[in-house]
Amino acid sequence: MKKKFAYILIPSAYFLISAFCHHRSALQAQDASARLHALTQSMFQEQIVSSTLNLHYTLEHPENYGITDYPVTYDDDAEPSLVQSAVSFASDYRRALYEIPCRNLPLEDQITYDVLMLALENENEAQDYALYQEPLGATIGIQAQLPVLLCEYTFQDREDVEEYLELIAQTDTYFSSLLQFEKARARAGLFMSDDNADAIIRQCRSFIGDQPDSNFLITIFDEKAEELPFLSEEEKDSYKSQNRQAVQKHVLAAYELLAEGLETLKGSCKNENGLCYFPSGKAYYEYLVRSSTGSYLPIEAIEKRIRKQISDDILACRELLKKYPGASRKNLSLQLPTEPEEILADLQDKMSGDYPKAPDVSVDVKYVHPSLEEFLSPAFYLTPPIDDRSENVIYINNASVASDLERYTTLAHEGYPGHLYQNIASQDDVARSLFSFGGFTEGWATYVEMESYAYAAAGCESEEAKAGAEFARLNRSAMLGLSSLLDICIHYHGYTRR
Strand, helix or coil at 139? Predict the structure, then answer.
């Protein structure tokens, strides 16, 4: 009887111990998850208010995230002292993350933990290259993107209007800080080439134009003000007058200040070749590749993959042309829709068999203002606030999009199943919105862009036209690879024009 009793107790004890361990593990997971969410919430609240533009474009209702009192300011990270402050922020939160036992986190939280840890480590590394970073640029520089961001600034209430007016009145002060940063870069021998400076100066002059009273920041604000139901006629007139003065006195003046400042800095360039010719340029390039792509492979391994991709694409093109000699013609009889709204609808229909149904949202397709066409990307998607993704905006640059097929695949990249779909279908931790993950976002959009060539050819009866779409895809893939290879050869290996 004693032996039988013991046999009964042994499995019972094992069950109790297992249950206790499981319970303790669950409590540990809950504790670690709660600590992570508290940390990311604190991180988000602290950093999102450092830029009013970021705050406005990230949250429709900041009060729902505990954000009720914040300064109205541009992002001043261009100043070297504040770059160090940003690095200090990264170090502080990285240490706090280390204290959370990630092995106890649920899978989704583990992903957030890993993503933030890598992002913060990259931010921490940035302190070594503070002056290497370039806030200006002909296509993606601050001065290129700011006019569009100001145009798309939404007004939900009177406070939004007043916040906007307060913000644009600081534009000249903000650009002055950018200019001070460029002067520091010049003193360090890191200033841009005269050709790049001339391109940015030309862009500034184009934006200023010869009719400041009809600048599109004035006309667009006037149109939006007229449609605001919460403003009286007197308030509309007052705000329109304030905006006109602010644009002329502070925004256009800021672009004039920047143009004149860059003009005086011309001739400061010490290196017109790749980054690797700067003192820490090669290490900086390695940092850029890691932070931009998310890949920690050696540059040589990345280069090897790119060369293979280019070779495979070219060989495939050759085989395709043997069978369909006319596939390289630009005028393909694919019978594609031409209007942006029709293209997006067609893409949504054709992607339905490959991807989950997208949430219902509205998409407004707009066109880049003529004064900015020369300098902006062929197209771009403006991410909506994370707490209201119902309204989305895609811009098309008519000066850069040539053929119907290019317009179709460009809207696939920016819209469905590209950036727009990726954004509205994801529900990430809010802290992830503080960082840019180019390898993730652009990698996805490029992947689906390649798929969209098959969507464009779907239903087409002409085999040669289908082959033409595939040839265009292979050519696009090879050109992207070639651009990436040239980037490595110039900035890492030191290739020059001669």
Answer: coil
Distance, in Å, from the CA atom of 2 to the CA atom of 20, rounded to the nearest integer, reads 26
Residue 18, token pair as written in the block: 């297992």
Strand partners, 400: none
> What gap in Å lies between CA 407 and CA 422, rounded to an integer?
19
C-alpha 144/C-alpha 151 separation (Å) is 13
Residue 440 near residue 111 (C-beta atoms within 8 A): no
The tokens 């499981």 sit on which residue? 22
For the beta carbon of residue 426, count every other beta carbon within 10 angstroms.
Answer: 12
CA distance 168 to 217: 10
Residue position matching structure tokens 């050819």: 457
Residue 383, amino acid: T
Band the pLDDT of 401: cuts 50, 70, 90.
Answer: confident
What pLDDT digit, counting tens, does each position of 284-342 carry? Answer: 999 999 989 989 999 999 999 999 999 999 999 999 999 999 888 877 778 899 899 99
User: What's the CA gap between 255 and 201, in Å, rounded?
Assistant: 9
Rounded to 10 degrees, the C-alpha dihedral 58/132/142/288 comes to -50
* Buried/exposed code over 380-407 (b: 16+ C-beta within 10 A; e: otherwise): bbbbbbbeebeebbbbbbeeebeebbbb
Quick one: pLDDT at residue 4?
A: 45
In whole angstroms, what is the distance from residue 352 CA to residue 341 CA? 17
What's the pLDDT tens digit per position in 352-380? 999 999 889 999 999 988 888 887 888 89
Helix (H, G, I), strand (E, B) or coil at 166: helix
% the chain with pLDDT above 70: 91
- As a whole number of angstroms, the distance between CA 292 and CA 288 comes to 6
CA torsion, ordered 301, 305, 307, 308, to nearest 10 deg: 140
What is the amino acid identity at position 63? E
Rounded CA gap, 478 and 320, in Å?
15
Task: State the helix-helix crossing angle for 340-351 and 404-414, rounded to 10 degrees.
Answer: 60
Residue 475's Cβ-count burial label (10 Å; 0-12, 13-18, 19+) is middle
Q: Long-range contact list for 63-67, CB < 8 A, 24+ apart?
A: 64/387, 65/41, 65/387, 65/430, 66/41
User: Which tokens in the block code for residue 137?
Assistant: 């640029």
Question: Could you tell me which residues are beta bridge partners of residue 391?
Answer: 362
More confident residue, 402 or 492: 492
d(CA 54, CA 49): 8
Which sign, positive or negative, has the C-alpha torsion 272, 277, 280, 286?
A: positive
Distance CA 253, CA 217 (A): 13
Query: Helices 171-187 and 142-151 sit at what angle, rounded to 10 degrees?
Result: 170
Strand ranges of the sheet holding 362-367, from the earlier edge strand across to the other edge? 362-367, 391-396, 379-382
Predicted TM-score of the model (pTM): 0.87
